[in-house]
Design brief:
Elements: E1 3-4, E2 9-10, E3 13-14, H1 20-24, H2 31-44, H3 61-70, E4 71-72, H4 89-94, H5 100-109
Parallel strand pairs: 3-4
Antiparallel strand pairs: 1-2
């Protein structure tokens, strides 16, 4: 998000490349939410769809509406792939899209 000082117009920003400072320029996105968005993005390897923003703890409907109006997911974005055979088990256990069964099985097999 960038602000044109003369006209105070906010421009859209790619959610996968946005900085904490850029996110904080969006109304209702403060320090805590901006950090959560960045942390969750890193955990996922990037957002592939705006609906994933619904999974961020503490993001209210009005804040989400502001965020999605000023942030976007680039069509050509490629997530960071996880090399599961080389990844740390603690990291894999935190990943939100792995089921508990997968997490347990992988931890015992690895």
């Amino acid at each position: 998000v960038s602000v044109d000082a003369a006209s105070r117009i906010l421009t859209r920003v790619n959610i996968n490349t946005a900085t904490i400072e850029q996110l904080k320029e969006i109304n209702m996105i403060g320090d805590v939410l901006a950090n959560r968005i960045i942390k969750y993005k890193k955990l996922l390897g990037g957002f592939i769809h705006e609906d994933q923003l619904l999974e961020i703890y503490g993001l209210s409907e009005p804040a989400l509406s502001n965020l999605t109006s000023l942030a976007f997911v680039a069509i050509d974005f490629k997530t960071t792939r996880i090399k599961v055979n080389q990844a740390d088990v603690k990291y894999l256990r935190r990943h939100p899209y792995w089921t508990n069964w997968q997490k347990t099985w992988f931890a015992t097999e690895k």
